[in-house]
Amino acid sequence: MKEIANILLTGILVSFLMFLMVEVLFAHFINSLLLDVLEDGLLLMLIILGLELIIMVLSILVGVMVAQNVSRLSVLKASLMSFICNMLFIVMLSYFSLFLMYPEVFSEVSGLEIIFILPQVIVYYSLYILNNVLSLLILSVISYYIIFIVFLNQFHEYSSYNNRSYKKYEGW
Amino acid sequence: MKKTSVFTNITFWLGVLALVVEFIVGYPYFLSTDTFEQEFGQKAIMEGCFALVGLLFIDVIRGNKFKLKPEFRKYEFNSLWRGTIILAVLWGTQMITYFLPMTVSDPQMALAITFASICEEIFFRGFVLTLFIKAGEIDRNKINLPFTKRDISVIEIAGIIISSVAFAGIHTNYYNQPSLLIALFLSGVIIGFMFVIWEDLTACIFGHFLLNFIWTVQNYGFWFFGMVNL
Questions:
Q1: What are the pLDDT digits (tens) for A2-38?
Q2: In whole angstroms, how far apart are CA A72 and each of A6, A64, A76, B69, B71?
Q3: What stretch of H or E contains A87?
Q4: What was the ipTM of the complex prediction?
Q5: Cα dihedral B155→B211→B205→B44 (10° resolution)
Q6: Chain A within 8 Å of B74 (Cβ-Cβ)?
Q7: Closest alpha carbon within chain A to B74
């Protein structure tokens, strides 16, 4: 239990700390190269999705750094699985929330087009439902680490079983 | 002194990022003709240099071979709780002495102040204090630190004081307010003792960073610091 709390807290804190620094570099990149080239709507989408991507990548890297007591392979598997699940979770949450609260967004969209508006859906979700991009990022990090912990526990247990040391494994 | 690296992989990469950010933020101001802006740029670059020196040479002082990417020590989960203790003690000290006033006028300044904490810890605790801890190994007359198992030499105590004086000394904006300099000196002494007891740079960075971050947010407000200029 203590280890779970530690991975959660350290992971969230360090991911956020690193994010604050990396977003500065991202802002400099946008400021110097893209600010005058792109139109406002596209730029906003690029910023929000870019920040989301940055925090996800950092969460994965920090997760690998923090979970040193577990075998590297288990951590990598758990990271990959939790990244996929977390993205699905965020996408599903965005679509369902917009369906429930702003159904008019989907009124002019038909068929497969509903998939192609995915970036806009995430942007709308963060701006109009969560009211703040920061909330989306915090939600992403926290949900990533919760899923990561679950997968890590599963893979660790599984690998311990494979190594015939299952009896010694007493969980965290 | 143990020959393992003082850096965990987290501390090392935080240091590298802080160094890059300080240089990026400071460089445009460094070239400015305005005196205030130039001074700000110089300070940011100085902080970056602190981190660079620390990242390159701490492990050499500890007796390890020079490596651009050292063999990191294992991250201890206790660092998080130790960092929280450091934050609480620093906060308490500031309440007894003075809360340091901050004049944060733009996002670049907020950035530089927030991440300066990482550079300062790497330099003053990691580099300067490690020099004295290494020198203190030859001193056989050590005093037991109360409530701990750690014995400390006079050289190490001198190191804590000297690094704290230097730590207070680089805050040139508080030179006309001695009470604030004393508060900074006390903070330096506290973190110094905690570093000597635990030898945990990660905890010092966590504690100091959180304190600076909370202050910056209180004084400036929070948005993504880099994004404000867009």
A1: 777 888 888 898 998 888 888 888 888 888 887 777 7
A2: 18, 8, 6, 19, 17
A3: helix A72-101
A4: 0.78
A5: -90
A6: yes
A7: A68
